[in-house]
Design goal:
Distance between the termini: 19 Å
CATH class: Alpha Beta
Largest sheet: 6 strands, parallel
Number of domains: 1
Strand order of the largest sheet: 3-4-5-6-7-8
CATH topology: TIM Barrel
Order of helices and strands: HHHEHEHEHHEHHHEHEEHEH
Helix content: 40-55%
CATH architecture: Alpha-Beta Barrel
Number of helices: 13
Radius of gyration: 19 Å
Number of strands: 8
Shape: globular
Length: 380
């Protein structure tokens, strides 16, 4: 049976400044990859200490071994080339919010993930998250989580029309190859005793439910409902072997997260009935920190064998949400999903990109403490 993990979090954490500097040093040729790995190990230990001290239910490595949330796959393969002409096709909306300029600038940071696209047939040369899992298995003080991008989210970044067709005639062909890589990775993680596996699959709400992109899809002759079917099928294909007693399987949806900016807005209503019923997961991690996500009404479609992790706490803004407000919102959600099948988390990670959101380390710590305190007051 999957654990309830009442005080959850999406996975990424703010990088310590020294780790960001080491990534810059590597990009500029001043240090070796081994020195980066040593710095990553030290930073992960610091992140694990924070999670233990704040009383959070599940441990991650903060995604510190990645320059961005989706970079795990690209670090494991050969066949990618730098994307020197940006943009070519836009699947998602533009960055929005007061820090949108910072979000665009972050993508060009030497510490970040250089845009890469498929320029040859992919060849997997290393495990996707093997180093992450080995370190967590040895050092996590409790149950540990591994995250990976959904195959369509990953393919959306890697497939470049005009170049990639020579190797994968359609984006769907690339998705199929990524699915097989991820299935093998999950099988290895299960053998290694992973406690919790999470798929970050963003196109449900970044595309299909977005109030701007959905009508744009229709205007361009693309069927959002057919896209939803394809998305569910691809994610379920990845997760089809993710079953073991004690393993929790989650899927995270959000509306974009980079330097406290976002891509999308819109209710879950457009995807709720199919996605919540058909996705083969134990829990959904859903963004609910602002009105951009709409109300809790779509949760009426969540079946009785699945949990909802309410992302009520902002990872974008430093202000702490009042516990009384959080408890009222949990009670509102419980009108649609019984409270015993709810948990709480931030709405997204604290650092989906390497530079992270506009909070300090201590402000992030207080957010973790708030998650744990709220969970204790509501469920213990």
């Amino acid at each position: 049976m999957a654990s309830p993990y009442r005080s959850d979090h999406v996975g990424s954490m703010l990088r310590p400044p020294e780790l960001i500097q080491v990534r810059i040093d590597l990009a500029e040729g001043r240090i070796s990859a081994d020195q980066l790995h040593d710095a990553e190990d030290a930073a992960v230990l610091k992140a694990l200490d924070l999670q233990r001290e704040t009383g959070i239910s599940i441990f991650t490595d903060g995604e510190y071994r990645r320059p961005a949330w989706s970079a795990a796959i690209r670090q494991a393969v050969e066949g990618l080339v730098p994307d020197t002409v940006q943009p070519t096709i836009r699947l998602l909306g533009s960055w929005q919010g007061p820090s949108s300029d910072l979000a665009n600038a972050a993508l060009a940071s030497p510490a970040g993930a250089q845009p890469m696209v498929v320029g040859a047939k992919l060849r997997q040369v290393r495990r996707i998250v093997g180093r992450d899992a080995a370190f967590l298995r040895e050092h996590a003080p409790g149950p540990w989580k591994i995250t990976m991008p959904g195959p369509i989210s990953a393919a959306g970044q890697l497939y470049k029309p005009g170049l990639s067709e020579a190797f994968y005639p359609t984006r769907a062909d690339l998705v199929a190859e990524l699915v097989e890589m991820q299935r093998r990775e999950i099988a290895a993680l299960i053998d290694e005793g992973v406690s919790y596996f999470q798929l970050d699959s963003l196109h449900y709400v970044e595309r299909i439910a977005d109030t701007t992109i959905r009508p744009q899809m229709i205007a361009e002759g693309e069927d959002p409902d057919a896209y939803l079917d394809m998305l569910i099928a691809a994610d379920n294909a990845v997760l089809s072997g993710a079953r073991r007693d004690g393993l929790t399987v989650g899927l995270h949806m959000c509306r974009g997260n980079n330097r406290s900016a976002w891509h999308a807005e819109g209710s879950y209503e457009a995807i709720a009935e199919k996605a919540f019923n058909l996705l083969e997961v134990d829990r959904f991690l859903l963004e609910y920190d602002t009105e951009r996500a709409g109300g809790f009404e779509p949760l009426r479609f969540v079946p009785p064998d699945k949990m909802v992790v309410l992302g009520l706490i902002s990872s974008k803004l430093p202000a702490l949400e009042p516990i009384d407000l959080l408890r009222r919102r949990i009670d509102e959600a419980a009108q649609y999903v019984p409270i015993e099948r709810l948990a709480i988390s931030p709405q997204c990670g604290f650092a989906s990109t390497v530079l992270g959101n506009l909070l300090t380390w201590d402000e992030m710590r207080r957010k973790f403490e708030l998650i744990a305190e709220t969970a204790q007051k509501v469920w213990d």
